[in-house]
Amino acid sequence: MKVAILTGGGDCPGLNAVIRAVVRRGAAHGFDVVGVRDGWRGLVEDDLFPLGRDAVSGILHLGGTILGSSRTNPFKREGGSDAVRATLDRHGIEALIAIGGEDTLGVANRFHQAGLPVVGVPKTIDNDLSGTDVTFGFDTAVGIATEAIDRLHSTAEAHHRVLVVEVMGRHAGHIALHSGLAGGADAILIPERPVDLERVADHVRGRFDSGKRFAIVVAAEGAQVEAGTDQTIAQDLDEFGHVRLGGIGGFLAKEIERRTGAETRAVVLGHLQRGGTPSPRDRVLATRYGVFAADLVATGRFGQMAALRGDAIVAVPLAEATAELKLVDPDLYAVAEVFFG
Ligand code: F6P
């Protein structure tokens, strides 16, 4: 059976572990695996290459993706979806494994609805995909952000400053909430909970008044502070209709300093959260997802996504996984609030 595999959207640690697992498990199923370069772009433009066992040797611990990635949306390209079908037909591909987040898997689901044999694997550092408890890449990103917060603590304390740490999270604040909790942040600002800036300033003032002469504020890039304060790097929409967010940290730092008088600095972690080696937990999860995805293909269970529920890897319909985003658990946010007011 000829099986193609692609990685789409923002890269994240663990992609290579999934690819390796698909190829290794696929060998047992008799798959002939081909790699698609740069996500959906490779299928639109017929850019494929053979993916044998040698090609996936030594990549388990590597960040990025040996396939390359892009934010190409075939449904936004002239003749794009026909081109995808034509590429699959031309190469005799009988199944496609798409590794991605809401956008990539949303496209996968559309193709599945249109009759293509597609299986999904949930990827994103943002952890905002429904249907699965966790996406791979999230654990690594939280680890990187937590280490950054730990490091910023000592310098904030030494200089009696407020440090604002901007982390990724466009629509959901999972990374901010988890790293903020793990790193002992004094305030955590996320897209799901719009916060009055004066409340943040009050809290910082309170800390300084009580003798703690520093504070750490963690903000997701999509944090909602006040109407009209969305921070974007560029307004141009990508092919999935997203603007490029960024800058909330700098905005908050200026506002906090202005309102409290405390010297404030901003640090933007940005793509550091996506790069480098995956954590052991992500390597294991990605490997389990890859093996399971190959099994889904072998047993003809298309239109499904590998998902983690509790400790088990299960199949969930792509339609369910892409219907809506998974936002932060209000109970976990309530735990965080114990520590910041
Ligand atoms: O989708 C994951 C993500 O990390 C978002 O949190 C962020 O907004 C986006 O990727 C940025 O991606 P890029 O700079 O690669 O377009």
UniProtKB/TrEMBL annotation:
The keyword Transferase applies. One of its GO terms (biological process) is fructose 1,6-bisphosphate metabolic process. InterPro entries: ATP_PFK, ATP_PFK_prok-type, Phosphofructokinase_CS, Phosphofructokinase_dom, Phosphofructokinase_III, PKF_sf. The record marks 123 as: Important for catalytic activity. The keyword Kinase applies. GO terms for molecular function: 6-phosphofructokinase activity; AMP binding; ATP binding; diphosphate-fructose-6-phosphate 1-phosphotransferase activity; fructose-6-phosphate binding; identical protein binding; metal ion binding; monosaccharide binding. Catalyzes the phosphorylation of D-fructose 6-phosphate, the first committing step of glycolysis. Uses inorganic phosphate (PPi) as phosphoryl donor instead of ATP like common ATP-dependent phosphofructokinases (ATP-PFKs), which renders the reaction reversible, and can thus function both in glycolysis and gluconeogenesis. Consistently, PPi-PFK can replace the enzymes of both the forward (ATP-PFK) and reverse (fructose-bisphosphatase (FBPase)) reactions. This is Pyrophosphate--fructose 6-phosphate 1-phosphotransferase.
